[in-house]
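Need a sequence for this fold. Nothing fancy.
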């Protein structure tokens, strides 16, 4: 409890570090924060072209929204993934990259990954704003779902920063982790239903049946991926305009609380040793 109080007492430092990240990233550029939209827009255009015109994946019909647009369906899953990817990629190096600061002055080290996640959240809100406008223009009734969307953005952020905190501690001991993570995230991306629907996995799972003579199916293993549930929740709210299943909500909350709790616990244990370890 005292450690949480210490974090709360450092909220001004957290805000200052977040502002530094947001303002400093595109300092002295002509377009400023608009550059934060360049990568997701480029990714959306590339994936939409490849999977709509070359591989021709069928568009998913939103239920009950009635939307029938692969590009929008793709973006509803891609934007949460890009947030998760960014938080992990920059969060894993948050301690090592600030070794000089950590060795000079004491402050709760946890504010470093938290400030990076907050700055990433700022960019994500801009991207989501563009998506909500696009969905509304094409017939989705998104506005009533925005409060729930904001709530699940927070839940997903807790999960993402929790994983990033655990990885940042591990990276202090194993400096190759940041490079390994880049490879892992590439596999993780294709093992998450972003470019394709879960129904395609379910169809293959039914065809294969139980694996190795057990009752465990391919779909059972696939759904062990925690990000899969979060992606489906965002698609339910944004693309389908429907309430996610209660079981999926509870599982997402459990992952978020577990990951964030693990991150806070690790930091509380390793806090005093951090300067020496770096």
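Here you go.
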């Amino acid at each position: 409890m005292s450690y949480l109080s210490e974090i709360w007492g450092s909220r001004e430092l957290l805000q200052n570090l977040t502002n530094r990240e947001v303002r400093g990233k595109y300092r002295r550029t002509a377009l400023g924060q608009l550059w934060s939209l360049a990568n997701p827009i480029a990714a959306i255009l590339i994936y939409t072209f490849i999977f709509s015109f070359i591989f021709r994946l069928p568009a998913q019909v939103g239920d009950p929204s009635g939307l029938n647009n692969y590009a929008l369906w793709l973006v509803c899953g891609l934007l949460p993934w890009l947030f998760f990817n960014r938080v992990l990629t920059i969060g894993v190096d948050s301690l090592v990259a600030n070794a000089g600061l950590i060795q000079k002055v004491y402050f709760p080290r946890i504010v470093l990954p938290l400030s990076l996640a907050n700055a990433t959240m700022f960019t994500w809100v801009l991207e989501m704003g563009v998506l909500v406008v696009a969905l509304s223009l094409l017939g989705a009734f998104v506005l009533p779902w925005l409060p729930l969307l904001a709530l699940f953005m927070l839940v997903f952020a807790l999960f993402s920063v929790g994983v990033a905190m655990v990885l940042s501690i591990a990276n202090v001991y194993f400096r190759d982790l940041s490079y390994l993570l880049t490879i892992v995230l590439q596999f993780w991306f294709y093992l998450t239903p972003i470019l394709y629907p879960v129904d395609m996995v379910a169809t293959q799972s039914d065809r294969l049946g139980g694996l190795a003579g057990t009752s465990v199916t391919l779909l059972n293993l696939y759904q062990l991926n925690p990000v899969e549930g979060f992606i489906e929740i965002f698609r339910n709210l944004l693309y389908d305009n429907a309430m996610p299943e209660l079981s999926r909500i509870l599982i997402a909350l459990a992952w978020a609380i577990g990951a964030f709790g693990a991150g806070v616990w690790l930091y509380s244990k390793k806090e005093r040793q951090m300067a020496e370890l770096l």
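For context: The chain has one domain: 2-28+36-277.
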